[in-house]
Task: structure prediction
Amino acid sequence: MDRQSKQERKTNETDVNISLNLDGSGITKIKTGIGFFDHMLNQIAIHGLFDIEIMVTGDLHVDAHHTIEDVGIVLGNTFLQTIGDKAGIFRMGHAYVPMDDALAFVAVDFSNRPYSSVDLSWTGNHFGTKQDELIPVTLIEHFLQTFAIHACITLHVKILSGKNDHHKAEAVFKALGRALDKASRFDSKRKGNIPSSKGLL
Result:
């Protein structure tokens, strides 16, 4: 089964092109114009074993908001299209990921019911070092919520401990990749059936 797709979104603010192979090996080509964001998106692909290409031109002269939001929209749409009718998959997955002082938990459900509960705590106000690439910490939550809405998933995210903001954010994105990988894998016991007592998602 070929679980690959491409999505794009072009507005007056951004031009986003994303391709996804759910059954890949973690190959990435990501360029959003925001170094820290590229690093986080790479964690989803590498630890989820997805092949992901993300090419973005955004209005970073304004700030990072539109670029990060629109990547969340298109990446969510791409997962939704690629996962299809969800027949035969595990549907739900979760992961605990430590990174030095930090520990993050993520649970996902390809439920076709968009919902997110995101509980994050930060020490600082921004990620990044270059003035035109600074990411307000609030945009991490906004990205996760936007992704959940457009992927039509139920998403729970919680930072359980940690002092270093970089470590906490990276643990979250690694856990997201691992949880998505587990949920999207095929369950041989399912025998191709829809993973729901309703018979439909």
Q: What stands out?
A: The chain has a mean pLDDT of 96. Residues 4-184 form a domain with the Ribosomal Protein S5; domain 2 fold (CATH 3.30.230.40). The chain has one domain: 4-184.
